[in-house]
Design a protein that fits this description.
Number of domains: 2
Radius of gyration: 44 Å
Oligomer: single chain
Helix content: 55-70%
Shape: rod-shaped
Strand order of the largest sheet: 1-2-3-5-4
Distance between the termini: 45 Å
């Protein structure tokens, strides 16, 4: 927190320095008139005024730009005043006190310590050897040691406080920058998640709808009696696509993030419906489960379903296959999903492909901490394999 007078001093530094110099000039002269009872002060008004002007002029010129020079100049003036017979008091030390304070605020501790010791080494011997009035030795030794220590300690504390405030501000700025980066990262992740969901929904259902429409057009010439069933399946496919698309887009319209989606997320429990829709396009899908099936976490269940859905979509659109096989192997701590077909073409998103099918499946598997691989089988066809941890969060 900045006190109002500190803000004024920072905004009007030259004015404050001038007023301080004038005030310390008067204080220096007043301090030169102070003496101990029973001890006559020498008449040194002229030299004292000159020393006060030199000390305050050095402060005015150099206390902010060259604090070391200001300390040296004021220390010499103070030592000269003690040689004239003036008693060492806080008033006489005023310019030197301010110079040491400025030095402690703007430089390191070692520099301040050296100038403090150097000032004492100049003033104390001068007062002990050249003092014509013979003031008590305590006033010439202990007094300057104590008084000059005060601005050194005060200025050091101010410098440390400023450094602490700057460090706190830097940490706050860094934390704010980190929060902004995290927010941007989450936005990117959310966009990728929504993009994957939209791709899965739109690509799968449109591929099925296209295949069903093509099948209906073919059967209209050869088996007109079977066209009605295909058109009924096509209506169901488009209706399902609209429902899932509405649910996915609806998430973008929520004012607040909700933990529960607008509609239940699909999982491996809906594989039978998925295989039925594929059957309507002429693709026969066989589902085989190995090991003991166990309940999956919602994230793993959805990821497994989407991978199977995308793999079958690629088979329907690109492989030209008649059959496909889905294998679900439950291990001790992971689920292995294998989708293979008897076709020949490379699915979308594969090597040389231009789509995002394989990319999306790989991202889904990796987001759950799993692994993904895809490629041609030696005996023909294409195979997709995904390994997902059973208890990923």
């Amino acid at each position: 927190m900045i006190i109002p007078w500190q803000r004024y001093a920072d905004d009007h530094a030259r004015t404050v320095d001038t007023m301080s110099a004038v005030l310390l000039f008067a204080v220096f002269l007043f301090g030169g008139e102070i003496g101990l009872p029973g001890i006559d002060q020498p008449d040194t008004a002229g030299p004292t005024i000159v020393l006060a002007a030199l000390a305050c002029g050095a402060l005015l010129l150099w206390q902010r730009t060259r604090p070391r020079v200001a300390v040296a100049a004021t220390a010499c003036c103070t030592a000269a005043a003690t040689a004239l017979g003036h008693l060492i008091t806080p008033l006489l030390l005023g310019p030197l006190l301010l110079a040491l304070y400025r030095l402690a605020v703007h430089t390191d501790r070692r520099t301040v310590r050296r100038h403090y010791v150097a000032s004492l080494a100049l003033i104390v011997p001068t007062a002990l050897i050249l003092d014509p009035v013979d003031h008590p030795w305590v006033m010439k030794t202990i007094s300057p040691v104590v008084w000059l220590l005060f601005p050194v300690v005060t200025g050091t504390l101010v410098r440390l406080q400023r450094a602490y405030v700057e460090a706190v501000q830097a940490r706050a700025e860094y934390a704010e920058h980190g929060r902004e980066e995290e927010a941007r990262h989450r936005v990117v992740e959310e966009r990728m998640r929504i993009a994957r969901e939209l791709h899965d929904v739109v690509a799968h259902h449109l591929a099925l709808a296209n295949a069903q429409a093509g099948t209906a057009a073919h059967l209209a010439r050869t088996h007109p009696d079977r066209v009605q069933g295909i058109l009924t399946d096509l209506t169901g496919t488009t209706s399902s696509a609209l429902r899932e698309l509405k649910a996915t887009v609806g998430l973008l319209r929520q004012a607040e993030d909700g933990d529960s989606p607008l509609a239940p997320s699909p999982g491996l429990g809906q594989l039978s419906e998925l295989t039925e829709t594929c059957a309507s396009t002429g693709l026969e899908v066989q589902v085989v489960t190995e090991g003991t099936a166990r309940p999956l976490t919602p994230g793993v269940d959805l990821t497994a379903y989407r991978i199977v859905q995308e793999a079958l979509t690629n088979v329907t659109r690109h492989a030209g296959a008649r059959t496909a096989r889905v294998r679900l192997a439950f291990g001790r701590d992971q689920l292995t999903i294998t989708v293979c077909d008897d076709g020949a073409a490379v699915p979308s998103g594969g090597a040389g492909g231009g789509g995002f099918g394989l990319i999306g499946m790989r991202e889904r598997a990796q987001s759950m901490g799993g692994a993904f691989q895809a490629g041609h089988r030696p005996e023909g066809g294409f195979e997709v394999t995904a390994r997902l941890p059973l208890y990923a969060r």
